[in-house]
Amino acid sequence: MVCSFCNENECESWMKSYCVDCSMLRRMLVLHNPTECVDILKRCLIRNQEQITNKIKLELKTQDKELNDTSYNTPLPPLTRSKTK
Ligand SMILES: [Zn+2]
């Protein structure tokens, strides 16, 4: 039987309706405050449209920087030590 919470994994056992992961989640919710748990998950897992846009911009910026970075092509500066001889 499929878990009635995630609808993905197999149930923990035939007499249980949740899978191992979901049972764990349920126990965590009971142990802590459910509102607090949801708040943590929201902050960690859910991104709003603005956050997604920011993330994309950031990714594009780093990609652009990588493309323009030609420092590996420029020759190394001469050693200044020899001049002080
Ligand atoms: Zn499940």
Sum up the structure in keywords.
mainly alpha, 3 helices, about 80 residues, elongated, 2 domains
List the helices and strands and how they pair.
Blueprint lengths: L19 H12 L2 H12 L3 H20 L17
Bound molecules: zinc ion (ZN).
Descriptive report:
This protein is mostly helical and 85 residues long. The chain has two domains: 1-31, no CATH class; 32-63, no CATH class. It is 52% helix and 0% strand. The mean pLDDT is 83. It binds zinc ion. Zinc ion (ZN) binds at residues 3, 5-6, 9, 18-19, 21-22.
Largest sheet: none
Q: Which parts are unreliable, with pLDDT below 50 for 5 consecutive residues or more?
A: none
Which bin fits the share of residues in helices?
A: 40-55%
Q: Could you say which overall geometry the principal axes of the C-alpha atoms support?
A: elongated
In short:
This protein is mostly helical. It has helices at residues 20-31, 34-45, 49-68.
